[in-house]
């Protein structure tokens, strides 16, 4: 569901509220737009693709990570997905209960656990991801190939800059 205020209205209201502060409004507006776009995409993909499969966004990210990298230690999964280890514990429990993920105890250190997709988890991802990608394609359909490349490169630059900070 879209926000009840347009981006322009939100930017104007922000400026009106805090114009007396020494702020970089261009940066604030750029990142606010990025954040709002990210939330809109996440909500749309969750509602259209993940919810019918009884998956949360975080559950999907965990499964995606394990699908791509096959087996990972829990702390690395949490870091990759951007969640706490405690949050991952609950998500992994849900996915394990559903038979989509399995916990593999470490043979080196019994305190460590790896996560892997089960055959059912792999099958779900192979069925789910084409649906997910079809919606991704619709979301960016109004961009030209040049705009898509530019957007991708600019977002990568923001990620790289943030990771250096």
From TrEMBL:
SMART domains found in the cross-reference section: HTH_MARR
Tell me the ranges covered by the HTH marR-type domain, including all copies. Answer: 27-160
Which portions of this protein are annotated as coiled-coil regions? none
Database matches in InterPro entries: HTH_MarR-typ (IPR000835), MarR/SlyA-like (IPR039422), WH-like_DNA-bd_sf (IPR036388), WH_DNA-bd_sf (IPR036390)
The record's listing under PANTHER family reads: MARR FAMILY REGULATORY PROTEIN, TRANSCRIPTIONAL REGULATOR, MARR FAMILY
According to UniProt, the name of this protein is MarR family winged helix-turn-helix transcriptional regulator
